[in-house]
Design brief:
By secondary structure, this protein is an alpha/beta fold. The protein folds into 2 domains: 196 residues, FAD/NAD(P)-binding domain (3-Layer(bba) Sandwich), CATH 3.50.50; 120 residues, 3-Layer(bba) Sandwich (FAD/NAD(P)-binding domain). 22% of the residues lie in helices and 30% in strands. It has 7 helices and 21 strands. Helix 1 packs parallel to helix 3, helix 1 packs parallel to helix 7 and helix 5 packs parallel to helix 6.
């Protein structure tokens, strides 16, 4: 039996991949999504389900898991084939077909859209004794349920947007929130900083954590050191959230045979790579002036899909009408 050949195979089932699959369905393309995890939604679903997103059009604010649920409901309206737990090992092009080799099988596609974001990530962990034994008990690197912090004294480590956002998210739930950063200044959006200033979150800067204080094998506090004065203090806390960012564990797509290397794919204004028929959208796509926001990727998705459609059907009109008149 001949293997199915798809019009478009989307590598990556995060928010950009989901919206691209939906839009490709509107264009009546035969679509497949290859995802390395066992569910759709990418990092938003896996790492940040409770995180509040504030930079999406039409949503004053929305939890990541709720946004993913909406995208899943949207893409359910069109016909898409999903392949889970498949990590792409290599890609090659023979004649007019792409051969996408994964850890489980080989997929055939006429075009490819890569929406893998920044690749696979692991959190930057706290390198202190006992930190590993406390993980998912009183020490966390991401939040799956804010209720775990209800009525607790919480320390948040970090100085970027994520750390500030989590401190603000936990403030109305926790008994007390401390935001601890090794520098004097934070690297967060101005709006978030104004909210932080108006909040009850107590900022401790510039401090570093030198040790974890335990009581009966449970976290009871943090041993802090002031970066400038070297003064030490013990801060009682019940829970600790470490927001030091993430480390990329591998390149998002192994396609050296196609002449593409590294963690990002350079694209033009059509979201087209140097390989005809291969497109990229979202954080994995790069071009001068690019801003890596979810909203940016959501806008790139229909551009990539439409140009992939035109690549397959050059006789068609490149610019589609609005979806309401499709």
């Amino acid at each position: 039996m001949a293997q199915d050949i798809f019009d478009l195979t989307i590598i990556g089932g995060g928010p950009v991949g989901l919206f691209a699959a939906y839009y490709a369905g509107l264009r009546q393309m035969k679509v497949k999504v290859v995802e390395s995890l066992n569910d759709l939604g990418g990092q938003l679903q896996l790492l940040y389900p409770e995180k509040v997103i504030k930079d999406l059009p039409g949503f004053p604010q929305v939890k990541a898991q709720d946004f993913i649920a909406q995208l899943k409901a949207q893409v359910a309206q069109v016909d898409v084939t999903y392949c889970f737990n498949e990590e792409v090992d290599a890609c090659e092009k023979k004649a007019d077909l792409f051969y996408i080799h994964t850890n489980q099988s080989t997929h055939l596609s006429r075009t490819i859209l890569v929406t893998t974001g920044g690749g696979a990530f692991v959190p930057r962990k706290l390198a202190l004794p006992a930190s590993e034994t406390l993980e998912q008990q009183s020490l966390f690197y991401h939040v799956t349920d804010v209720e775990n912090f209800k009525g607790q004294v919480v320390g948040v480590l970090g100085g970027g947007d994520s750390a500030v956002d989590w401190a603000l998210t936990l403030e109305p739930v926790a008994k007390k929130v401390y935001l601890i950063h090794r520098r004097d200044n934070f690297r967060a959006l101005e709006h978030s900083m104004s909210q932080l200033t108006a909040s009850s979150v107590e900022r401790l800067t510039p401090y570093v954590v030198e040790d974890l204080v335990l009581a009966e094998n449970n976290l009871s506090g943090l041993q802090l050191r002031h970066v400038k004065t070297k003064e030490q203090r013990t801060l009682p806390v019940d829970k600790l959230l470490v927001s030091y960012g993430f480390i990329n564990t591998h390149a998002p797509l192994a396609c050296e045979s196609l002449g593409l290397e590294g963690n990002n794919i350079p694209v033009n204004s059509r979201c087209e790579s140097s390989v005809p028929g291969l497109y990229a959208a979202g954080d994995v796509a790069c071009y001068p002036g690019k801003i890596n926001l979810i909203a940016t990727g959501l806008g790139e998705a229909p551009t990539a899909v439409s140009n992939a459609y035109f690549y397959l059907h050059p006789e068609s009109r490149l610019q589609p009408t609005h979806s309401t008149s499709m």
